[in-house]
């Protein structure tokens, strides 16, 4: 594809993501299947531009004084120092030529943008974001406008950090220590887009892809060998695998149980456990009652807005509405109540979200100890609170 054709494709794909409620990756994959002429490099270039436009949707469109996918893509060209008129020509597969209004807008410096435009968030989230992010408001929102690095958790059931680093290097993946070694000591970080999942180290279970903050939150729970631990919202199992490693794996005493209200979300977990050399029992929702009052630790990685992970899922910030947030908060209250019923007397409950919004965090559960990581700290935003009952 020519550079102008890639621009036209980016506008089309961005519009498709914005029309859909499905994850952006899935929409882009469908776009790729429907446009077979696009080779792998074209698809990657289009996807990168779409994600960049989603992360900076409002600020990129601002110079055009328009709120359209086309304006955001033109803005992305400007932001790179390119000349939109050279790409938006209307020739061949290029997007339509710049209009007189667009030329006029580009000729005038735009007025200074208000914060929600400059920092790329919906107006209605202004107050909760200021409250949740505090002094790191600007730095955290700026951090979430950039591409995420690739973070991995070294699986201590298979290797130590040095051995994993050597194996990754042999795969062509160079790493550095993660951003907060004291909180997530087994984290390694590679550049955005590093092909970790295509390497042997990953296939052999030496590393799992997991953001540093997510690792820090799992470590905060301090799961120990010998305990009965329930991962109440296990989903794909990222935290389950981290808890399993902290519990010492299959050779150590104790029992790890993975549960999710939507069991199909755990479909890949048995294969992931096998690759990691770990063990957990998967429990269906209808069998949960049997765990009542029995667990030493219940880990609740609650369904949430994902507002701390907008770098990775930037479509989510534009899809969130006050109504959706209210529904999530009500669900979090229900999940907490059900999770607590599984604790033995004196057991600990950890409530975690990858959100930075106060109504999902301290407004929901404060506990006796907290671990709060904000995007300005160098990874996703995460909240965790621990209480002993
Ligand atoms: C943040 S995700 C979990 C991510 C996962 N722990 C990980 O580390 O990959 C939240 C999960 O909560 C599940 N969930 C939603 N409502 C639930 C409920 N009432 N009880 C248990 N799980 C629930 C969702 O299906 C979803 O998989």
Automatic annotation (TrEMBL):
InterPro entries referenced in this protein's UniProt entry, alphabetically: MeTrfase_RsmB-F_NOP2_cat, MeTrfase_RsmB-F_NOP2_dom, RCMT, RsmB-like_ferredoxin, SAM-dependent_MTases_sf
Superkingdom field: Bacteria
GO molecular function: RNA binding; RNA methyltransferase activity
Entry annotated with the keyword Methyltransferase: yes
Alphabetical GO biological process terms: RNA methylation
SUPFAM superfamilies: S-adenosyl-L-methionine-dependent methyltransferases
Catalytic site: 354
All residue ranges annotated as the SAM-dependent MTase RsmB/NOP-type domain in the record: 140-389
UniProt-listed Pfam families: Methyltr_RsmB-F, RsmF-B_ferredox
PANTHER family to which the protein is assigned, alphabetical: NOP2 YEAST -RELATED NOL1/NOP2/FMU SUN DOMAIN-CONTAINING (PTHR22807), RIBOSOMAL RNA SMALL SUBUNIT METHYLTRANSFERASE B-RELATED (PTHR22807:SF53)
Record-stated family: Belongs to the class I-like SAM-binding methyltransferase superfamily. RsmB/NOP family.
Name this protein carries in UniProt: 16S rRNA (Cytosine967-C5)-methyltransferase
């Amino acid at each position: 594809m020519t550079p102008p054709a890639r621009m036209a494709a980016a506008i089309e794909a961005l519009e498709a993501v914005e029309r859909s409620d499905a994850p952006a990756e899935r929409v882009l994959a469908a776009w790729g299947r429907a446009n077979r002429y696009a080779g792998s490099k074209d698809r990657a270039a289009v996807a990168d531009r779409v994600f960049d436009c989603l992360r900076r949707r409002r600020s990129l469109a601002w110079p055009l004084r328009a709120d359209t996918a086309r304006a955001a893509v033109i803005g992305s060209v400007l932001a790179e120092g390119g000349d939109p008129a050279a790409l938006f020509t209307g020739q061949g597969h290029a997007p339509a030529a710049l209009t007189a209004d667009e030329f006029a807008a580009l000729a005038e410096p735009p007025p200074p943008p208000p914060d929600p435009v400059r920092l790329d968030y919906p107006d209605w989230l202004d107050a909760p974001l200021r409250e949740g992010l505090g002094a790191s408001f600007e730095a955290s929102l700026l951090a979430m406008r950039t591409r995420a690095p690739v973070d991995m958790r070294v699986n201590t059931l298979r290797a130590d950090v040095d051995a994993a680093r050597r194996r990754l290097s042999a795969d062509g993946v160079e790493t550095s220590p993660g951003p907060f070694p004291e909180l997530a000591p087994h984290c390694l970080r590679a550049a955005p887009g590093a092909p970790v999942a295509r390497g042997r180290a990953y296939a052999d279970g030496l590393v799992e892809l997991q953001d540093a903050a997510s690792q820090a939150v799992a470590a905060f729970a301090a799961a120990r060998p010998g305990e009965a631990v329930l991962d109440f919202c296990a989903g794909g199992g990222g935290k389950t695998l981290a808890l399993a490693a902290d519990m010492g794996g299959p050779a150590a005493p104790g029992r790890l149980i993975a549960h999710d209200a939507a069991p199909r979300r755990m479909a890949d977990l048995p294969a992931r456990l096998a690759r990691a050399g770990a063990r957990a029992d998967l429990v269906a929702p209808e069998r949960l009652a049997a765990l009542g009052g029995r667990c030493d630790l219940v880990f609740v990685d609650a369904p949430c807005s994902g507002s701390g992970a907008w770098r990775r899922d930037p479509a989510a910030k534009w899809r969130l509405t006050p109504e959706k947030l209210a529904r999530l908060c009500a669900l979090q209250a229900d999940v907490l109540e059900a999770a607590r019923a599984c604790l033995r007397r004196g057991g600990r409950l950890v409530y975690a979200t990858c959100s930075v919004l106060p109504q999902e965090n301290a407004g929901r559960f404060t506990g006796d100890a907290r671990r709060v990581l904000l995007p300005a700290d160098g990874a996703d935003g995460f909240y965790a609170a621990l209480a002993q009952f």
